Amino acid sequence: MGVLLEPDSVARQTAFFDRFLKDEDTEVSQWPPVRLEARERAYVGEFRAEQEWPLARTRHASLYLDASKGALTSAEVSQWPPVRLEARERAYVGEFRAEQEWPLARTRHASLYLDASKGALTSAEVSDEAQVEYDALEGRAVFDHRFDVDTELTGYMKLRLWVSAEGADDMDLFVAVQKLDADGQIVPFPFFATFDDGNVAVGWLRVSRRELDPERSTPEQPRYLHRSDQPLTSGEVVPVDIEIWPSGTRFRGGETLRLVVRATMSTRTLRACSPKVTRSRSTGAAMCCTRVAATTAISSCRSFPDSATCTSRERRRRWHAGHIS
């Protein structure tokens, strides 16, 4: 209780209660209207008498928040930048900087091509068709791209898939963009304001809700109408554009961007999103093609885009190489 139980404080409390509870004549009638302590630290300060509260001689002054420096300053911050972003390298390691617009005007788009035979994302167009198979409920398709020079990916990404179902009329598609260091180890990032082992960016879509809004969609950012379901029919191949959340991430030369496509979220992500989400609608056979498109910024920025085809039987998916942009 600190000062409250100091002998002087106890004596003052006793005088107060004796006066107002017992109606005794105590020193309270001689007290000033206000007694305050100007503190310097715990148990260090000065008590003094005042005549009113708030103090009549108070002078008000303003301090201004300077978010770029993490400071409070007496000089007004004349102009904050329209955009402040972080280019991340790993969890809690990155650089904050000011920008004048979003998306960044100096963004440069590039294309990577899906090579299913090698599990790679390559800057050279793939000429031969190949395929990779994974279990629709537990497996995943993985494609890697190694950067030769330092590269920053800042902005939007989009994944395009061409999909077809055999024995099912719907699919769930979950996409993750990951970063691997020069030794091939996954570099974690914070996500959902709770965990520290997330991806660079993620995106997902239920295929039956794929209908785009042509007026609001852009090459790098799809927008959906969500007016009605569009179920798949057997053998029908349909394009699907999946928005990948914007991010800002630096890849050093020798580090790798990994694209992961699967039919379910990870168990941990499911719990973080909603305890009611327990299963995917990706059951039965399916055919898919892939195209990824990413918006990036700064020199040497790359993207992921265009096509690939996949076939699946008995809850399997096969990915055929195509082109990604």
Features:
single chain, 325 residues, mainly beta, Jelly Rolls, 2 domains, five-stranded antiparallel beta sheet, three-stranded antiparallel beta sheet, 2 helices, 21 strands, 41% strand, disordered C terminus
Produce a short descriptive summary.
The protein is mainly β and about 325 residues long. The chain has helices at about 5-20, 265-275; strands at about 35-40, 45-50, 65, 70-75, 85-90, 95-100, 115, 120, 130-135, 140-145, 150-165, 170-180, 185, 190, 195-200, 200-205, 240-250, 255-260, 285-295, 310, 315-320.
Structure characterization notes:
There is one protein chain. With 325 residues, the chain is mostly beta strands. It folds into two domains: 2-50, no CATH class; 106-321, Jelly Rolls (Sandwich), CATH 2.60.120. Helices cover 7% and strands 41% of the residues. It contains two helices and 21 strands. The protein has helices at residues 7-21, 267-273, and strands at residues 34-41, 44-50, 64-66, 71-73, 83-90, 93-99, 113-115, 120-122, 131-135, 141-146, 151-166, 172-180, 186-187, 189-191, 195-198, 201-206, 238-251, 256-262, 285-294, 308-311, 316-321. Strands 10, 12, 13, 16 and 18 form a five-stranded antiparallel beta sheet that branches. Residues 270-280 and 283-325 have low confidence and may be disordered.
